[in-house]
């Protein structure tokens, strides 16, 4: 996207703060006026000195100008610095909110590290850009004012100055787009670096076990090198711009000094005017450097605003219920199945083949339903549909007999609890994890669910008990899974959705988990994606999925008799169980 089209995006971030920006601009104008008046007052001091009259008045005015100018500049810096931080905070708040309201599919299509870079790094660039518009206007007015006052002093010298400014300005304008391109490329490399680094650190065990540390770090360092190369290019072009600007000014000063001295000698110019003029020439450097700095900051900010704006394509889950909704949430029903799927078809993207199709399923209010099937059969997709991470594009899902669109996402999820297969714990302590769904749960409730998963003694023995951080190594993988299960058991959900870990648990733990599920199934619905033989044998009803469809459903005995795929799946689980049993016994 060209910068001209991205500028409105940056302005959208600034708009809520326009009053502060105008105040900053006004302060800048006053500081500018004080700066512009200084050489004229200096000339007044020199003329008064030459005439031999009292110098007090011009010197007092000069001092007042210097002090007032400094105070106003200080005020402007503080104002714009605070504003910049507010804009960064606004942008971060809005992006973080957007991430957590987003549809899971939209988020997962992007590398997590890149999403993080948008919040941490790109918003930082808005910081610089926020004050740059004010800076640009200030500098533009400062430049124009300086040139006008130079014209008042001597038009010929102004002509020389303008010629130098035009030549230097044209060269700078030529170089600026290259700085912008290099900065954009550098930020893109930083985004890729974030994405790859995050993914690699997440998979650090696999990276190490594959002896891929060198290759992987080299790949990421490659991104860092790209970022450095682009930034170095930007730095080199910036350095050229600065050198050109400084050299141009120095040459102009020499030229103006020579021409001015010649004109003063011939009586065409007062010496005091020449000194004032030269002061203006030196002052010219202020607005010119401010212009270049602000244009650079603005370009980086515009590019960052563009990248942040791309996040708008992340679709949010609708926060409100659909058209079928009524204002009141109906009371829980006690009759009929809790969840019903009617002819449900779903896919992950437009034009992709359906991940599940024609699913007809009823989940009874009580009892344990196990879902089995080969890899890719659609088991996880079924859970995603129930949890509303994915919307069906055919058929309907009903909770308590009401279609999902008549409930909000929040209302549906309040009735379910979910234990995911991989990363089932969130950052924080054991207590934070257990109370994640119900932050108001008291310690008594927490100990009750820990007892249910047979973890109360182990947690009680930890030096920090419930306050133990889950990043510490004191808690094993199996214990983490049980903590996640305990969280899901808190406050008795209507439906417990459990995606069993594929890793085998030890016999005692497995028995504890099994007993827990059995107790839950007596009071409510439990649906498991089963990876253990014991879970399948324990289920009241089993759903066999294959190729996105429900192939068969029934009890273990029925399916074992009638369904060949089920028999194969059970045999595979039996072999896995037999293989772990001697290992555990040994
Ligand atoms: N995020 C996704 N984007 C696109 N396609 C997907 C996505 N997740 C799953 N699929 C596809 O949907 C189909 C069903 O996958 P699903 O993950 O539901 O199977 P599964 O039975 O849970 O498999 P597994 O036991 O291996 O986890 C597969 O063909 C899979 O390739």
Automatic annotation (TrEMBL):
Regions crossing the membrane: 59-80, 133-150, 156-176, 241-262
Alphabetized UniProt keyword annotations: ATP-binding, Cell membrane, Membrane, Nucleotide-binding, Transmembrane, Transmembrane helix, Transport
Compartments reported by the entry: Cell membrane
UniProt xrefs under PROSITE patterns: ABC_TM1F, ABC_TRANSPORTER_1, ABC_TRANSPORTER_2
Membrane topology note: Multi-pass membrane protein
Organism: Couchioplanes caeruleus subsp. caeruleus
Family membership noted in the UniProt record: Belongs to the ABC transporter superfamily. Lipid exporter (TC 3.A.1.106) family.
ABC transporter domain ranges (all copies): 339-572
A Pfam family: ABC_membrane
GO molecular function: ABC-type oligopeptide transporter activity; ATP binding; ATP hydrolysis activity
Domain of life: Bacteria
Segments forming domain ABC transmembrane type-1: 22-300
A GO CC term attached to the entry: plasma membrane
InterPro entries, per database record: AAA+_ATPase, ABC1_TM_dom, ABC1_TM_sf, ABC_transporter-like_ATP-bd, ABC_transporter-like_CS, P-loop_NTPase, Type_1_exporter
Protein name stated in the entry: ABC transporter permease
């Amino acid at each position: 996207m060209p910068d001209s089209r991205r500028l409105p995006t940056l302005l959208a971030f600034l708009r809520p703060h326009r009053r502060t920006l105008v105040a900053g601009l006004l302060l800048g104008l006053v500081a500018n006026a004080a700066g512009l008046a200084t050489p004229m007052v200096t000339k007044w001091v020199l003329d008064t000195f030459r005439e031999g009259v009292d110098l007090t008045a011009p010197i007092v005015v000069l001092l007042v100008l210097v002090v007032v100018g400094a105070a106003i500049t200080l005020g402007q810096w503080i104002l714009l610095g605070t504003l910049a931080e507010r804009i960064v905070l606004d942008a971060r708040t809005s992006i973080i909110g957007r991430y957590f309201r987003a549809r899971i599919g939209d988020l997962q299509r992007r590398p997590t590290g890149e999403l993080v870079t948008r919040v941490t790094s790109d918003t930082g660039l808005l910081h610089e850009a926020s004050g740059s518009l004010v800076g640009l206007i200030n500098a533009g007015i400062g430049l124009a004012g300086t040139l006008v006052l130079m014209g008042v002093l001597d038009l010929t010298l102004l002509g020389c100055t303008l010629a130098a400014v035009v030549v230097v300005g044209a060269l700078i304008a030529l170089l600026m787009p290259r700085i912008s391109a290099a900065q954009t490329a550098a930020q893109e490399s930083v985004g890729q670096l974030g994405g790859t680094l995050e993914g690699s650190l997440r998979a650090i065990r696999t990276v190490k076990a594959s002896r891929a540390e060198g290759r992987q770090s080299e790949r990421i360092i490659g991104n860092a090198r790209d970022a450095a190369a682009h930034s170095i290019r930007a730095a080199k072009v910036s350095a050229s711009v600065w050198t050109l600007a400084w050299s141009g000014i120095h040459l102009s000063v020499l030229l103006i000094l020579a021409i001015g001295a010649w004109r003063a000698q011939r009586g065409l110019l007062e010496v005091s005017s020449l000194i004032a003029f030269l002061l203006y020439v030196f002052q010219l450097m202020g607005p010119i450097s401010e212009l270049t700095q602000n244009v650079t900051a603005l370009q980086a900010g515009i590019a960052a605003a563009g990248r942040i704006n791309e996040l708008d394509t992340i679709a949010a889950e609708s926060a409100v219920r659909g058209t079928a909704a009524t204002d009141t949430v109906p009371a829980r029903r006690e009759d009929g199945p809790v969840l019903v799927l009617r002819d449900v078809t779903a896919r992950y993207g437009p034009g992709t083949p359906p991940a599940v199709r024609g699913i007809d399923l009823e989940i009874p209010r009580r009892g344990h339903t196990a879902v089995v099937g080969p890899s890719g059969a659609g088991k996880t997709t079924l859970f995603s549909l129930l949890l509303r991470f994915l919307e069906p594009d055919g058929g309907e899902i009903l909770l308590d007999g009401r279609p999902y669109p008549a409930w909000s996402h929040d209302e549906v999820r309040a009735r379910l609890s979910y234990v995911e297969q991989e990363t089932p714990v969130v950052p924080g302590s054991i207590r934070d994890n257990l109370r994640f769904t119900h932050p108001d749960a008291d310690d008594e409730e927490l100990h009750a669910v820990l007892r249910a998963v047979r973890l109360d003694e182990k947690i009680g023995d930890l030096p920090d008990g419930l306050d133990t951080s889950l990043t510490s190594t004191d808690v094993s993988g199996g214990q983490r899974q049980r903590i996640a299960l305990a969280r899901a058991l808190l406050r008795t959900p209507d439906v417990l959705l459990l995606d069993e870990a594929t890793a085998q648990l030890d016999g005692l733990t497995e028995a504890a988990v099994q007993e827990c599920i059995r107790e839950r199934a007596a009071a409510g619905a439990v649906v498991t994606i089963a990876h253990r033989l014991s879970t399948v044998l324990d289920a009241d009803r089993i759903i066999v999925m294959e190729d996105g469809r429900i192939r068969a459903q029934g009890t273990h005995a029925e399916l074992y008799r009638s369904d060949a795929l089920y028999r194969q799946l059970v045999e595979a689980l039996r072999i896995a169980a037999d293989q772990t049993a001697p290992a555990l016994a040994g």
